[in-house]
Automatic annotation (TrEMBL):
One of its GO terms (cellular component) is plasma membrane. This is ABC transporter ATP-binding protein. The keyword DNA damage does not apply. It comes from Micromonospora peucetia. Pfam families: ABC_tran, BCA_ABC_TP_C. PROSITE patterns: ABC_TRANSPORTER_2. Gene3D superfamilies: P-loop containing nucleotide triphosphate hydrolases. Signal peptide: none annotated. InterPro entries: AAA+_ATPase, ABC_AA/LPS_Transport, ABC_transporter-like_ATP-bd, BCA_ABC_TP_C, P-loop_NTPase. One of its GO terms (molecular function) is ATP hydrolysis activity. Keywords: ATP-binding, Nucleotide-binding, Transport.
Length: 261
């Protein structure tokens, strides 16, 4: 069976504007694939296609060989988890409870039902709690389990958001600009974390990363796909992409345009 995420010949048009044009890419389990490109290249649109916010006009998606028709509200059930720009944590829940919400789909009586005081299975809740604590521990933040997210530094909150995504045991993890708002030290730590992500389980997940921060992309990705005006202009290892003249042209062109504006 074909493993991981595959996008084939994806096209997205907004009226007369082509945001994605014949974009194909694969993300195998255990691999980190980055999508980069100058402003307006189509990165967010690509991310939104995989999350189900945008339905492509052309092409198809599969996850582990099965046709994928993502819908934002049922991503977890499809084996997809994502982190958002900003952290999107629930302010009224502790760190541990936030991470537990990531895995509620695995519980018979939902954790959310428990929060609402509805009848629940104690065994389910204990299992969720243990699993959430394990994930927090793996990410080195179990000490913050009982804290309110709002009291923690941004870099820790981001780890919590990542823990919540991982608690779902995703087949595919989508990271949207995880370096946004972080300082250099935090980015170095994040890089280490992302490099370890797909391999941390016996059943590794595929990781798709959309990110502006070039150093992070270069240091964590096994493969990079470069978009420009909605088309794939280069794909390969970080070294291959770095040395590709088409990539330099695309970025330089963007800089010249910005300077002229
Ligand atoms: N909902 C929409 N309606 C119309 N045009 C859109 C819409 N979303 C994106 N676009 C256009 O599609 C193109 C690709 O945009 P997209 O946001 O995907 O690029 P990006 O690479 O994420 O850019 P940035 O780095 O600036 O975030 C742009 O020209 C943008 O203006």
């Amino acid at each position: 069976m074909e493993q991981g995420l595959a996008l084939r010949h994806i096209g997205v048009h907004f009226g007369g504007l082509t945001a994605l044009d014949d974009v194909s890419l694969r993300v195998l389990p255990g691999r980190v694939v980055g999508v980069i490109g100058p402003n307006g290249a189509g990165k967010t649109t690509l991310f939104n296609v995989v999350c189900g916010f945008v339905t492509p006009d052309e092409g198809s998606l599969t996850l582990d060989g099965r046709p994928l028709r993502p819908r934002p509200h049922r991503l977890t059930r499809l084996g997809i988890a994502r982190t958002l720009q900003g952290t999107g944590l629930f302010a009224g829940l502790t760190v541990l409870e936030n991470v537990m919400t990531g895995a509620t789909h695995t519980a018979r009586a939902g954790f959310l039902a428990a929060l609402l005081g509805l009848p629940r299975s104690d065994r389910d809740e204990r299992r969720l709690r243990r699993h959430a604590l394990d994930v927090l521990d793996t990410l080195g933040i179990a000490g913050h389990a009982d804290a309110a997210p709002g009291t923690l530094p941004f870099a820790v909150r981001q780890r919590v958001a990542l823990a919540r995504a991982l608690a779902a045991r995703p087949r595919l993890l989508l990271l949207d600009e995880p370096a946004g708002g972080l300082g250099a030290d935090d980015i170095a730590e994040l890089a280490e974390l992302i490099r370890g992500l797909p391999r941390r389980d016996t059943d590794p997940c595929a990781v798709l990363l959309v990110e502006h921060h070039m150093d992070l992309v270069m240091s964590v990705c096994d493969e990079i796909v470069v978009l420009d005006f909605g088309r794939v202009i280069a794909a390969g290892t970080p070294d291959e992409v770095r040395d590709d003249p088409a990539v330099a042209d695309a970025y330089l062109g963007a800089e010249v345009d910005e300077a002229a504006a």
